[in-house]
Amino acid sequence: MRRYSDLIRERFSNEEYRLLMHCHERMDQRMISETDIRRAGENGQVIEVQSDARGPRVLVMGKNSDGRDFYMVIALTRPNVTVITVCLFWEHVWEEVDALWRRR
Asked: What are the φ and ψ backbone dihedral angles of 23, each rounded to 5 degrees?
């Protein structure tokens, strides 16, 4: 997971990311700003890696400006990573195991 964290941090620090329209819609609904997204990309915690035929997607947790936890789903596309969507983080859906979050 560390290599995913390093790659995502590097891409966000270099502004090598894009937000899908769906992501913008969810950001508006959930009161998450692009500044929140960037901060999470640069400093957030990888909480899950998903992989299928489309390639890996990484869930990264961050906080919005109000301190509320959220996570974003990032596709490891080239040259820019793609933020597919953002979701509010609900603790009843996740559990902490060995200092990492996992779905229940």
From this structure: -65, -45
